[in-house]
Design brief:
The protein is α/β, with parallel strands linked by helices. The chain has one domain (10-246): P-loop containing nucleotide triphosphate hydrolases (Rossmann fold, 3-Layer(aba) Sandwich). It has 9 helices and 10 strands. It has helices spanning 48-55, 78-87, 103-113, 119-132, 148-160, 178-195, 206-212, 230-235, 239-246, and strands at residues 10-19, 22-32, 37-41, 63-68, 71-72, 88-91, 166-170, 198-202, 215-220, 223-228. The strands form 2 sheets. It has a 6-stranded mixed β-sheet, sandwiched between helices. The chain has a 4-stranded antiparallel β-sheet with strand order 2-1-4-5, covered by helices on one side. A hairpin with a 2-residue loop joins strand 1 (10-19) and strand 2 (22-32). Helix 3 (103-113) packs across helix 4 (119-132), helix 3 runs parallel beside helix 5 (148-160) and helix 4 packs across helix 5. The N and C termini lie far apart (56 Å). The structure holds adenosine-5'-triphosphate and magnesium ion. Adenosine-5'-triphosphate (ATP) is lined by residues 19-20, 22, 24, 42, 44-50.
Amino acid sequence: MSSSPETPVIEVQALKKRLGTQDVLRGVDLQVRRGETCVVLGRSGCGKSVLLKHIIALMRPTSGRVLIEGEEITGLPERQLLDVRRKVGMLFQSAALFDSMTVEQNLAFPLKEQGIRDPKVIKERVTEALDMVDLLGAESKMPEKLSGGMRKRVGLARTVVGRPRCILYDEPTTGLDPITSDSINRLIRRLQKRISVTSVVVTHDMKTAFHCGDSIVFLHEGRVYFQGTVDQLRASTDPVITDFIEGRSGDAD
Ligand SMILES: Nc1ncnc2c1ncn2[C@@H]1O[C@H](COP(=O)(O)OP(=O)(O)OP(=O)(O)O)[C@@H](O)[C@H]1O
Ligand SMILES: [Mg+2]
């Protein structure tokens, strides 16, 4: 199916997912337009990572649909899913680098999987990706020698090296100090501007949400409880939202 400029790049329709005995997603609807960064907030365990896994087709819905650039990906055979995963890159919560490979080899890996063999092209693309995350010169380093923040950046470089149209970020700043977190937030914005990427950012970090979000979605009890701009989120007086933003548990002392 062809997609017009108005077609959302990512569209989730009435997505339900049952895992074991738990209805994790109970009808999630979401649209992300081209070039937009959508931030997904919600309590731990509410299904944010599960939602991302559906957008990259690592999980299949119990019911509902996911469309990428107007094309339904739900139920596609594995071979065609490889094309989807080429369009949609994901930065996993753990960065998931190969520890036995250098930074350069880590970045070359997805390119080789895409069938790119020319060493010159690979070198160019790896350099371009490392430049985007301010890590030129780190090519021969081993991941275990890198700090948490640098690993995240290498993970991000590996996500962008395949030139995806969409990037999904799962907790990109968790476990990082505030300054390193700030540099990751800036990188997310920079990638959005430089390569016009469409993104979904799952986070608990309100700084990330306020810095990166063009739109904000708040997941609660398996559904989209709130969707709006950063300003609308800040203006909310709903205790479910304000307790989350201000980090109040609601438990008695
Ligand atoms: N493969 C699985 N099998 C069974 N249950 C699962 C599976 N993956 C996730 N779950 C359950 O689904 C729920 C949502 O999990 P998910 O990882 O999406 O939460 P989350 O919102 O990303 O939380 P966090 O903020 O802690 O990362 C949890 O109760 C989790 O235990
Ligand atoms: Mg998660």
